[in-house]
Design goal:
The chain is built from 11 helices and 14 strands. The protein is α/β, with parallel strands linked by helices. Bound molecules: 1,4-dihydronicotinamide adenine dinucleotide and oxaloacetate ion.
Length: about 300
């Protein structure tokens, strides 16, 4: 038997990709290959070397390399796609669709060529449609192509609730469903602080305001940064999903999954609660929704379908 460390390739060495690579190494989840286009090869190698040189100080063992050559990604267990363009103030995530769809196709062809058995996590926006594009291009089974949005959206919701109640973020749970757009669906009814439903902690107006801030959470950061979008919390979210898969934790997390009838939707990717483990997406969990919640999810699914139409 040969024991080897997990190999994780992160495609795109920009803000989210580089931050993800560092966090993966800091958690010793495996060796990391950071990949970008040939024009960005120098900075990609430089970032990887700088990260590698932080490992003796941090007391972690992880090889981190930077490259523009996909051959170095060969036999990755997990590939995280962050490549593409990010939005600037005044843009919506959907404005990125045509440019990033092309990037998804070219990146996925290379990923599949060198790592035909990997699991792929997609971050690039508009992420529900981009995950679909990666799924279509890869020809992989649905359990091996998963998108990230819900862990991040839920983290924002939990942050705002914990601030409001002045309690630990650890004791606040939440669930955000739907597409990663301004009509995502934070499910207050399934959210708790210390095991007590949020509706018992806060009046409806405060909860509504926090739901609204969560929906616009990405835009809030875009407005503040001025030249790009969020990356610390997105990277942390990807790493939580990666850890669930690489350690076969079978965590229950929201993720963008391929739906074949679940929640009443067919042939599309949308954020739903799932179990993540060694096979990637192990299972989709179907929650019972009220009529109002289902209508909100339908609106969100319609927005995702509109973006998917551009792809077709
Ligand atoms: N799903 C989510 O929750 C989130 C999604 N995002 C999305 O992630 C994407 C990346 O964001 P950032 O890292 O902030 O952008 P960035 O601009 O800092 O980095 C993107 C990197 O992708 C590279 N790239 C472009 N085309 C490529 C190709 N064909 N092959 C390999 N690399 C390529 C660029 O050279 C650049 O280094 C954006 O689309 C952004 O909207 C960002 C945060 C959260
Ligand atoms: O808002 C953006 O463009 C980036 C993103 O998806 C997020 O931070 O939620």
């Amino acid at each position: 038997m040969t024991i080897r460390r997990s190999k994780i390739s992160v495609i795109g060495s920009g803000f989210t990709g580089a931050t993800t690579a560092l966090m993966l190494a800091q958690k010793e989840l495996g060796d990391v290959v950071l990949v970008d286009i040939p024009n960005a090869e120098g900075p990609t190698k430089g970032k990887a070397l700088d990260m590698l040189e932080s490992t003796p100080v941090q007391g972690v063992d992880a090889r981190i390399t930077g490259t523009a050559d996909y051959a170095e990604t060969q036999d990755s267990d997990l590939v995280i796609i962050t490549a593409g363009i990010a939005r600037k103030p005044g843009m919506s995530r959907d404005d990125l669709v045509s440019t990033n769809a092309k990037v998804m196709r070219s990146v996925t062809e290379q990923v599949v060529k060198y790592s035909p058995n990997c699991i792929i996590l997609v971050l690039t926006n508009p992420v529900d449609a981009m995950t679909y594009e990666v799924y279509r291009t890869s020809g992989f089974p649905k359990n091996r192509v998963i998108g990230q949005s819900g862990v991040l959206d839920t983290a924002r919701f939990r942050t705002f609730i914990a601030q409001e109640l002045n309690v630990s973020v650890e004791d606040v749970t939440g669930f955000v469903l739907g597409g990663h757009g301004d009509d995502m669906v934070p499910l207050v009814r399934y959210s708790y602080a210390g095991g007590v439903p949020l509706e018992k902690w806060l009046p409806k107006e405060r909860l509504d305001a926090i739901v609204e801030r969560t929906r616009k959470g990405g835009g809030e950061i875009v407005g503040l940064l001025g030249n790009g979008s969020a990356y610390y919390a997105p990277a942390a979210s990807l790493v939580q999903m990666a850890e669930a898969i690489l350690k076969d934790k079978r965590r229950i997390l929201p993720a963008i999954a391929y739906l074949e009838g679940e929640y009443g939707y067919q042939d599309m990717y949308l954020g739903v609660p799932v179990i993540l483990g060694a096979n990637g997406l192990e299972k989709i969990i179907e929650l019972e929704l009220t009529e109002e919640e289902k209508q909100a999810l339908d609106r969100s699914a319609d927005s995702v379908r509109k973006v998917m139409k551009v792809l077709n």
